[in-house]
Amino acid sequence: MQAKYITKATDLAREFIGKAIKPGDIVVDATVGNGNDTLFLSRLVSESGRVYGFDIQKFALKEATQKLQTNGVLDRVELINDGHENINKYITSKVNGIMFNLGYLPGGKHEITTKNNTTLIAIKTGIELLKGNGIMTIVVYTGHEEGKREEEDILSYFEKVDQNIVNVLKLGFINQKNNPPFLLVIEKR
Ligand code: SAH
After folding, report:
1. Residues at CB less than 6 angstroms from ligand 1
2. pLDDT in the model for residue 107
3. How far is CA 188 from the centre of its chain?
4. Which among 3, 11, 123, 126 has the fewest CB atoms less than 10 Å away?
5. Which pLDDT does position 110 carry in this prediction?
6. Residue nearest to atom 3 of ligand 1 (CA)
7. Residues of the chain with pLDDT under 70
8. H/E run at residue 131
9. Cα 80 to Cα 127: distance, rounded to the nearest angstrom
């Protein structure tokens, strides 16, 4: 039987984000990719809210635009063809939520993956941008070299962040084969 409650890291990320984000909120999809999380976020914030989406691949943004348009939510979304490490060039107000789904796009080029240095810049900037009780989710893929570096850097960063600034939760499957991704959920205090 398929798992129903303890499912994939990406689904669990949505559970946490879904709890925190309300109509009218401002949120960021830091890795648009196929646009599924962007669509999910755009529904949560409703027409009065705003979603900013980042991706370095034009092709991904084109597909995502199509998906958002088909679902009638494109007007509340701003897609930005730049790296998430430059997030503060585009967003200056505080935000309620930020989602990261790291790694490479399934079906896309495996060389175009998120990278430890830029990922870490984006995470740090994102933490600054989060409002109190704002939520950040990060799905980390450790099954490839670049992903292992990201895992190491991200965990060593968060292990040292003051618990008075953020609460950091790590959720992962301990009995699954083939390096399943794990989830970090961060709440700004
Ligand atoms: N690994 C996930 C999908 C991740 S998609 C899965 O298996 O479902 C990650 C997306 O991040 C890709 O579309 C890629 O182009 C994008 N990306 C890579 N580096 C980026 C950066 N610096 N800023 C923003 N997006 C980036």
Report:
1. 31, 33, 54-57, 60, 83-85, 101, 103-106, 112, 114, 118, 141
2. 84
3. 15
4. 3
5. 84
6. 105
7. none
8. strand 130-140
9. 19
